[in-house]
Amino acid sequence: MNKLIKDQIGQLKPSATLAINEESNRLKKKGKKVYKFGFGQSPFPIPESVVSTLKNNANKNTYLPMQGLEELRSAIANYLNKKNNNDFNKEDIVIGPGTKELMFLTQIIFQGEVLLPAPSWVSYQPQAFIAKNKVHWIQTTSNSNWFPTAEQLEAKIKSIKSKNLLLFINSPNNPAGTVCKNLQEIAEIAKKYKLIILSDEIYSELTFFDQYKSISNFYPEGTIVSSGLSKWCGAGGWRLGFFAIPNQLRELKNSLKILCSESFTSVSAPIQYAAVEAYKGNHSNYLNAVKTILSFTGNYVYENLKSNVINVIKPGGGFYLFPEFTNVKFSSSSEMCKDILNKTGVALLPGSDFGLDSKKMFARLSFTDFNGVNFLRHTLGRKKLDDADLRKNAPNIVDGISAIKDWANSF
Question: pTM to 2 decimals?
Answer without folding.
Answer: 0.94
